[in-house]
Amino acid sequence: MPYVRILPENKIIKVIKGKRLLDILIENNIKIPSYCGGAGWCGKCKVKILDKGISLACQTYVEEDLTIKLLKEEGTDINIQKDFWENSNFILSPVITLQAFSLEIPSLSDSRSDLERILAIKENIYLRDIFVLRKLPIFLRKNNYKGKLVLFENEIIDVREEELKRVYGIALDIGTTTLVGHILDLTDGSDIDSYSTENPQLPYGADIISRINFIIHNPDGLQILRDRLIKTLIEIIQNLCKKNNINLNDVYALSITGNSVMTHIFLGVTPENIAFSPFVPVFRNMMILDSRDIFGNLFNAKVYVFPLISGYVGGDVVAGIIATNLLNEKGNIMLIDIGTNGEIVLKSKDALFACATAAGPAFEGSNISHGMIAKNGAICHVWLEGTVKFEVIGNMEEKGICGSGLLDAISVMLDLRIIDLTGRFIKGEEFCLGRVKITQKDVREFQLAKSAIRAGIEVLLNKADITYKDIDKIYVSGSFGSYLNKKNAIKTGLLPNIPLEKIILVGNSAIGGAKMILLNRFLMKDAEKIKEEVNYVDLSSDKKFQEKFIKYMYFGEEDQCLMKENID
Amino acid sequence: MEILKEVANAVIFGDRKGIQELVEKALNEGISPEDIINKGLLSGMSVIGERFKKNEIFVPEVLVSARAMQKGMEILKPLIAKSLGIIKGKIVIGTVKGDLHDIGKNLVAMMLEGAGYQIIDLGIDVPPERFVQAIKENRPDVVGMSALLTTTMPQMKVTIDVIEKEGLRDKVKIIVGGAPVTEEFAKEIGADGYAEDAYSAVELVNRLLKVS
């Protein structure tokens, strides 16, 4: 059996001859990006093989002893902009409440059971958790029949000492690319801290389709993806508690939001049928689970899982609708979440429409030669100021370009007539920003992605029988949405030509909604209402979408669209 | 033959309105429908194919040109059928089960039609049984399958297996295509050919059926 030595860690692994290097690295928990899931086209899993040069790990089969060097990728410091709704005032009525009690001490004249005594504290409360029942007799006698009930709505989920003042909740957003966690104080509503890291499923593919593929083709695929996810979520939870000196036992509620595929995987339910027409999910309902069923005996909390709208419009969109208060706002309002998928919601009159576009991961960096997600080292803004200037996240040397940077770069390329309105290079063959290059293929990928989103916008406007001129507001969310240059979004045709002040960047709206639901339990009803009322529009079978997808592939406003009359 | 050049140019620029007039003008000048197709419409389309391959133009231009070509074909097709009835071959085409994408498949169909093949387009989300039925009913020379998703690609193999089981495999050539499909994949599932783009698909079919 050959050995693989991995530098710079100097880790040595004994492997089965003929095994694929990428699989070896993943199985040994060595961080390696692979957006295409090992299909050989994304080029992200490059390693240096000593004496042989650069090679793709997914295309390398280990036949003899090898020494490889990992090419450095940045750590987990992903920047997410500060959320805008922190300013918006809303009523605090957290999912977890504390109820202080001081019980009559039992006597021969009052020999009610321990539980009866507890249930008499407040109307309608009940106990289902056998662990709490087991704890009860010892707790009551040790604490002199005084303490606090921890309630989730009317359910007693714990009994705690009188001194307990604060309880906490954690909101988790399971993105295809990024996992985000926020820890909140459920007694005063404050957002204490946040933590984000890459989705550990990334080596199995950048998009949900490659993840599903992995599940279909590997008998343990679902288990592997789920285990990785749960392990990293636990790390996030522990990290948030440790950093803020919070006892894990004081965390009583979690809210989980994610797209439909991620939500399925989180629950260990196969998402495979979402990949094929007619795209059927296993469930759409919200779930309230016991944390011990998911995270083991680490802590005891209620886990709220957002409902799903369809196979391609998930709980992250429901959370986004809650965060932007779409249910209650008046006028024609859009919410566009640009992540690995692009989901679009339109509220018009009293109707809600939603669709998902396969924007592809172009806005999150894969499929782009020097693409990367919005983290340290990514070019996030490009502009003209005499010469071409650019800004790098983290103020360091440029390592790649993220979605917003690409949008700006393409806009600059249009201004400088490096590319024409059809997207073709008319000056040179590539556009350089320091060490980062943008090629013809990258421009094409961008065109496909932006046109998919724009066509989705237009289809929804059609459904509501309005035009872009009727739009009162567009909320743009997603990490791409945090750095987006509105002018360039219009110039490239990604967004329709509406006054800039009507476009509002809201950062990660999914985590916003997940946080809000922890702080206001009545929003769970809103989430149910959203699930029921949103009309899902399937674009893949929509003829108009395909027409529009072609129509918006070029740059410039639609009125100048070169081929307009020939395409309609 | 200035007029044929004009027809070709109308295809290249996607001038769907102008092409009608030009084709009629060419017919009035006494040029045969076959020549208008081959030296006008198709020569324009092959310029587009080349440019697309070289990355000079993008999907919209190809589609617009293909539609202009189709407009021309609409006028000429009845005339060919009447005069000679030459059809280079019959092709059944469709997007496999579970997959609803059809831009690429339509483009291939249009290009093949332009190249003189008769197309039976089964549309999208086509289960193996529908392919089998279409083979039995139409006796095509070639069956073309398209898939845009990595999850639906395996349906190509399933379809080939069903065709095989029905004893029809040696009656047709099977070709596959679509963004995630590769030459190796085509070989692996036992297809007769793979084409990277619509233009290459015509070359592939010509090669398989030994026509030029």
Describe the structure concisely for a colleague.
The complex is a heterodimer of chains A (568) and B (212). Chain A is an alpha/beta fold and 568 residues long.
Report on the structure:
The complex is a heterodimer of chains A (568) and B (212). In chain A, a hairpin with a 1-residue loop joins strand 21 and strand 22 (387-392). The longest helix of chain A is centred in the C-terminal third of the chain and has 24 residues, at 440-463. Chain A contains 16 helices and 28 strands. In chain A, helix 8 (315-323) packs across helix 14 (523-533) and helix 10 packs across helix 15 (543-551). Chain A folds into four domains: 3-70, Roll (Ubiquitin-like (UB roll)); 96-160, Roll (Ubiquitin-like (UB roll)), CATH 3.10.20; 166-305, Nucleotidyltransferase, domain 5 (2-Layer Sandwich); 327-568, no CATH class. Chain A starts with a strand and ends with a helix. In chain A, the strands form seven sheets. In chain A, strands 14-13-12-15-17-16 form a six-stranded mixed sheet, with helices on both faces. Chain A is 29% helix and 25% strand. Chain A is an alpha/beta fold and 568 residues long. With 212 residues, chain B is an alpha/beta fold. Chain B folds into two domains: 2-83, Orthogonal Bundle (Methyltransferase, Methionine Synthase (B12-binding Domains), Chain A, domain 1); 89-208, Cobalamin-binding domain (Rossmann fold, 3-Layer(aba) Sandwich). Chain B is 58% helix and 11% strand. Chain B has helices at 2-12, 16-28, 33-53, 59-83, 103-114, 128-138, 154-165, 183-188, 198-208; strands at 89-95, 117-121, 142-146, 173-177, 193-194. In chain B, strands 2-1-3-4-5 form a five-stranded parallel sheet, sandwiched between helices. In chain B, helix 5 links the parallel strand 1 (89-95) and strand 2 (117-121). In chain B, helix 6 crosses helix 7 (154-165). Chain B is globular and about 55 Å long. The model of chain B has no long low-confidence stretch (mean pLDDT 90). At the A-B interface, helix 4, helix 10 and helix 15 of A face helix 4 of B.
